[in-house]
Design a protein that fits this description.
heterotrimer, A mainly alpha (287), B alpha/beta (251), C mainly alpha (283), B: 251 residues, alpha/beta, Rossmann fold, 6-stranded mixed sheet, 10 strands, 27% strand, C: 283 residues, mainly alpha, MetI-like fold, 13 helices
Chain lengths: 287, 251, 283
């Protein structure tokens, strides 16, 4: 009997460790990023690092200002949201409320596929279709630009926006919609004035999720944004926080590499903030 | 009193199942008409044909006619939204929108194009007064309606229906989810409202039908078995099945 | 009749809905068609069965296919026991609500972290600190952390469907907790594990940023054990390198078409499996 108890206790211990694994991973990631990210910031100076407008890591007198990356990430994400959210929202309303079963099933498959396509494939198609098209249409020397990245990101966040909004819209009690119709509102008026407001926390969660996706995407934007550390402008080549890390990591060393870790730390802080916001909306949706 | 609403040979199918069989009825203006019958008898289904809420179910097929003020409401020229505005509905489960009390009431008028704040304020107050809930909520019009008690929510829903100035109010078992005190307040309200509105109420509660209605219709298995003055129907029913039902022999 | 304003509103909203849905559909159809049209002509037996050679100027993606396969296998071997264990802890052992909340929040956080950050930390921790160097193993372990929340969540979901009465019954017979878990709880989580595997495989196949600095770019042809300890490009990384650095768009599109087919297959099997389990649960 006694032996049994010891075994049970040991097994409990093993499961406890496994259970805490996710927490451990988050701590590991946080600690690693903080430890490796702080030195460069300390050396460069927080203000110069965050608000410096020039990044010239390989120059004779290197400059490590990441404001261009921060702004590019912020503008890029905002642009993607501005384009992706309305499209995703309207499609979600249509699919959850109006579409017949066949259309709905097809579109659900299509949206899952969109979510499953690897980012490098988006990058590849973007590189060969979108970038030349942007160059032609807007008559600019290089189509690899913030604008192209925004389009690719908008497409990439569509599935999350559509799926999460649909779930929220489908959870709206039918009673609300019946009441609205009985007051003489048309179905369309009902969807946008009753169903959508009733699902607003879920839709907000969808938007925040989209923000997280967009700000964290690296490979696809690397392939279409030109990857030059300019201050952001719609039709110029730009570099995002993510691509700043990715593009120089393989050949960097010393302060330059440390500065890349600091960029990752900044990106991580953005993501943690977004996660907290997401959690807030998801909790609200549950209530 | 003239008849505001009439149905003639109304049949309704859900896919293959016939839920209403040759229902014909005349509903007089400014009175309370009660529909009674065991569950599944078609009384709620019939109620919903009166403002075409059944249109929302794709598999429903309807034949026969329902006339409102002499106009067949299933005629293709009828605007169903306008119709539902004139024939309001209160549902079984109180279903206020997850918005403020004020916005709940203002929803209908706003939908129908009223934008002026002054006008809306006036409508909100009047509707809440008519639904006998003004005094309880006048200090918290901006609070979320979901914070109210079930009985208050139901009266709010009645006020919301009144805000678009309907002629008829359809009530689908409006008190079945409420406690006895809230129930009696809704009943008092219904009697008060009949001065200016025509009320059709579905109820599973026969005492309620006796207490408030002028006419009663008894439904069984999709058929209208008997229809007449409430007092007469409950004291001297003509049909054996009505008698069995009101004396509690089934259902 | 509806007044003009309401009519205009309804028409505008309907138009917005149709356009948005149509645009999404068109986009998906275009992407699939474009990738197939551009990629399938370049898929040949030679491409699939050889490794690249600078001498003959030949490009073959067999090493990348094998690397991807190794990464998928290695990741699953680690992530399944870990994810299932974590889920069992949460549903069977954990009594402290706060702790459960913290663990679940941590899992949420993990699924929100961008892959590039995983790549970076994977490089620092697995490649440098643990000394695995740039290798498929380091890449796989990085992906294990990324996919841990997925497997944990799907397992948790399926464990919730194991009726409490089964557990009570087993306990009532005098079985110890571990025995109950082995005999009653574990069989109940098969659904979740399979779903979790499918989702993880999808994510692993599509992953590139996390592998760039952990698994590297090499195209060497290796057996599985040798392969795991040496650097190697997955299909996605190979696509990136061929497209961005070598301008070999034909090969890149061939890989893209293969990835697209795999994505379709995974989505299809995920749907099938979830339908099958839903049916099984009804019985």
């Amino acid at each position: 009997m006694k032996k049994n108890k010891t075994i049970e206790r040991a097994i409990h211990g093993v499961f406890l460790i496994l259970g805490l694994l996710t927490v451990g991973c988050v701590l590991l990631i946080t600690i690693y990023l903080v430890i490796s990210g702080i030195p460069a910031i300390a050396e460069i100076g927080l203000f110069d690092f965050l608000f410096g407008t020039e990044w010239a890591s390989t120059a004779a007198e290197p400059k490590y200002g990441i404001l261009p990356f921060i702004l590019t990430s912020v503008y890029g994400t905002a642009g993607a949201i501005l384009i992706g959210v309305p499209i995703g929202f309207f499609a979600a309303v249509y699919l959850s409320k109006m579409a017949n079963q066949k259309v709905k099933a097809f579109m659900e498959g299509a949206v899952s596929l969109l979510a499953g396509i690897p980012s490098v494939v988006y990058g590849l198609v973007g590189m060969l279709v979108l970038v030349p098209a942007v160059r032609e249409i807007f008559d600019i020397p290089d189509g690899a630009s913030l604008f192209s990245a925004i389009i690719v990101l908008a497409i990439m966040i569509l599935p999350s926006i559509i799926k999460v909004s649909m779930t929220a819209l489908e959870a709206v009690p039918k009673e609300y919609e019946d009441a609205s119709l009985a007051l003489g509102a048309t179905p369309v008026e009902t969807y946008f004035r009753v169903s959508a407001p009733a699902a607003k926390s879920g839709i907000a969660a969808a938007v925040v999720l989209g923000v997280g996706r967009a700000i964290g995407e690296a490979m696809a934007v690397m392939m279409v944004s030109g990857n030059v550390p300019n201050m952001p402008s719609l039709f110029q080549s730009v570099r995002f926080l993510t691509t700043a890390v990715a593009s120089e990591m393989s050949y960097s060393s010393g302060l330059q590499q440390q500065a890349l870790f600091s960029i990752a730390l900044v990106l991580f802080l953005f993501i943690m903030l977004i996660n907290a916001t997401l959690n807030f909306f998801l909790k609200k949706e549950k209530d | 009193m003239s008849d505001i609403m009439t149905a003639k040979d109304l049949n309704l199918w859900y896919d293959q199942t016939q839920a209403l069989k040759n229902v014909s009825i005349k509903i007089p203006e400014k009175s309370i008409t009660a529909f009674i019958g065991p569950s599944g008898c078609g009384k709620s289904t019939f109620l919903k044909t009166l403002n075409r809420m059944n249109d929302l179910i794709p598999s429903v097929k309807i034949t026969g006619e329902v006339c409102y003020n002499g106009q067949n409401i299933y005629d293709s020229s009828v605007d169903v939204n306008e119709l539902r505005r004139e024939i309001g509905m209160v549902f079984q489960k109180p279903n206020p929108f997850p918005m403020s009390i004020y916005d709940n009431i203002a929803y209908g008028p706003r939908t129908h194009g009223i934008k002026s704040k002054v006008k809306l304020d006036e409508i909100v107050e009047q509707s809440l007064r008519d639904a006998a809930i003004w005094d309880e909520v006048k200090d918290r019009l901006k609070k979320n309606a979901l914070g109210m008690s079930g009985g208050q929510q139901q009266r709010l829903c009645i006020a919301r229906a009144l805000a678009v100035k309907p002629k008829i109010l359809l009530m689908d078992e409006p008190t079945s989810a409420l406690d006895p005190i809230s129930t009696s307040r809704i009943e008092e309200l219904a009697i008060e409202l009949k001065k200016s509105y025509t009320i059709v109420i579905v109820t599973h509660n026969m005492q309620q039908a006796v207490r408030i209605s002028d006419n009663t219709a008894f439904f069984l298995l999709g058929e209208l078995i008997e229809y007449g003055e409430t007092e007469k129907l409950f004291s001297q029913p003509v049909d054996k099945r009505t008698e069995d039902y009101i004396t509690g022999r089934f259902g | 009749m509806l007044n003009k304003k309401r009519k205009a509103y309804t028409i505008a909203m309907k138009a917005a809905m149709y356009i948005s849905t149509g645009l999404t559909a068109a986009l998906v159809i275009f992407l699939v068609a474009y990738v197939f049209v551009k990629g399938i002509p370049h898929i040949s037996w030679e491409l699939l069965s050889t490794k690249p050679s600078y001498i003959s100027g030949r490009i073959g993606i067999l090493p990348d296919i094998l690397n991807t396969l190794y990464i998928v296998l290695a990741t699953l071997i680690f992530v399944i026991p870990l994810g299932v264990g974590a889920a069992i802890y949460l549903t069977e052992y954990a009594k402290n609500k706060k702790l459960v909340g913290i663990i679940e929040y941590a899992a949420e956080t993990l699924s929100g972290i961008p892959s590039i950050i995983y790549g970076l930390v994977g490089m620092l921790f697995f490649c440098q600190f643990l000394g695995f160097k740039t290798s498929l193993l380091a890449g796989s372990l990085t992906l294990v952390i990324m996919n841990l929340p997925t497997v944990m969540r799907t397992t948790q979901e399926s464990l919730k469907t194991v009726p409490q009465s089964y557990r009570d019954g087993a306990f009532g017979l005098g079985a110890g907790k571990w025995r109950v878990i082995r005999t009653v709880v574990l069989p109940g989580c098969v659904d979740g594990v399979i779903t979790g595997c499918i989702l993880s495989v999808g994510r692993i196949l599509g992953e590139s940023a996390a592998l760039l600095f952990t698994a590297g770019f090499a195209h060497a042809l290796n057996g599985i054990f040798e392969g795991l300890t040496s650097p190697g490009a997955s299909l996605t990384v190979a696509l990136y390198v061929y497209a961005k650095e070598q301008g070999e768009f034909g090969v890149a599109f061939a890989i893209a078409a293969i990835l697209m087919i795999l994505t379709l297959l995974i989505n299809f099997s995920a749907t099938l499996v979830s339908r099958y389990f839903a049916k099984k649960r009804e019985l």
